[in-house]
Write a structure and sequence with these properties.
15 helices; single chain; mainly alpha; 2% strand
């Protein structure tokens, strides 16, 4: 029997179980592409959920690999004037307190203690786990659907009901109700002859899977953004131990008494200002990395800005009742791209607003069906 031209169910299981996050991400991205193309053979040359997942996974790979981003993060932090000022103030406070390391040595020690590479590694780990978790669950159902339902010549309600019966009832993150609804709609779209109705059904299926996916990803997205959170107390302890290796306990007792009587020392204040600014800049950098999506032909979408695309003709006016009803729940600006830019990517509702309009705008973008790895 010839091998299927899409990732088989056993291959999905194998890829999801790979230990190396970098190699796993590359195969996940390619697998999504294969599943996406397989779906177009029945749904037509439009984007399905796997189409968007291909490019999201490709983007995630940049964070997962991380090496270039670690260097970029260090360069970014070193070039921020406000952070540089807090470093200089902290250096002077340490000198006045009696550190023997010299100004250059103290400055180097501050950056070493901050350890921006560790923040990048934490973010990378969270993104890799999210990439793996979503693929293991959702790609599995796409591969299973292609095997069990794709060859049906006519609509068979019992057949699709049997497929969905293995999915867990209830809402995400634990239930898979929205996955069942989405695959039922994909199945319905396979036999729909009205092109506009078909486009709206597919869009709703994509959004329903996106709703499930983003709800499931909430912990990993939150963790990736909070990788920048700097524990001020731990940073202070490490820095004081390094600055005053032979008298750390004296400095610690002094800090305790200063805090007790609400009279922080200049060194305490300098450390507090530095950690506050460093935390802010780390969060800004990681957010910027996570809130970018690369598409073919050099298109880069900044998820914090309103989409500049347009709704395709078939989706300019929506009429499918289930679609319009669902959008009323999760899209605060129906039929408009105003306000689609995400203020906080860790906010589930904020993300869903952007994703709904992203799926709608790029529904007919055939360039998304191209290979994710083409040497560019």
């Amino acid at each position: 029997m010839p091998a299927p031209d899409f990732t088989s169910l056993s291959e999905v299981v194998r890829i999801a179980g790979m230990a190396d996050p970098v190699a796993r991400n590359l195969q996940i991205t390619q697998s999504y592409h294969e599943l996406s193309l397989a779906f177009t053979q029945r749904l037509g040359r439009c984007a399905n959920w796997c189409t968007f997942a291909t490019w999201a996974s490709r983007q995630a790979g940049q964070t997962i690999r991380g090496e270039d981003l670690s260097q970029a993060l260090e360069q970014k932090l070193a070039a921020v004037p406000a952070l540089g000022q807090t470093v200089n103030a902290l250096v002077e406070a340490a000198v006045l307190k009696g550190s023997k390391l010299g100004r250059q040595g103290i400055s180097a020690l501050i950056w070493e203690t901050l350890d921006p590479k560790a923040a990048m590694a934490r973010a990378s780990g969270a993104v890799a786990r999210g990439n793996q978790k979503v693929y293991a669950e959702i790609a599995r159902e796409f591969a299973r659907f292609l095997v069990e339902c794709d060859n049906d010549a006519s609509f068979n309600a019992e057949h699709i009901a049997c497929f969905c019966s293995t999915l867990r009832p209830g809402d995400p993150p634990d239930g898979q109700q929205y996955l069942g609804q989405a695959f039922t709609r994909y199945y319905q779209a396979m036999f729909e002859i009205n092109e506009k109705q078909k486009a709206e059904i597919i869009l709703l299926a994509n959004i329903e899977i996106g709703f499930h996916e983003q709800t499931r990803l909430q912990p990993e997205i939150q963790e990736a953004l909070e990788a920048a959170v700097l524990d001020g107390k731990l940073f202070k302890i490490k820095l004081l131990k390094a600055l005053f290796p032979n008298q750390y306990w004296v400095q610690e007792i002094g800090s305790v008494f200063s805090a007790l009587f609400n009279r922080p020392t200049p060194l305490d204040l300098a450390i507090e200002k530095f950690t506050h600014e460093a935390r802010h800049q780390l969060r800004l950098f990681l957010t910027a990395q996570l809130m970018e999506l690369g598409f073919p032909e050099g298109v880069h979408l900044h998820l914090g800005k309103d989409l500049k695309a347009h709704f395709p003709i078939l989706l300019q006016q929506l009429a499918y009742p289930d679609l319009t009803a669902f959008l009323k729940k999760i899209d605060p600006t129906p039929d408009s791209l105003t306000g689609t830019g995400t203020v906080d990517w860790a906010d589930l509702n904020d993300r869903l607003h952007f994703i709904c309009d992203l799926f709608r705008c790029y529904h007919a973008a055939e360039e998304l069906l191209g290979p994710p790895f083409n040497g560019k």
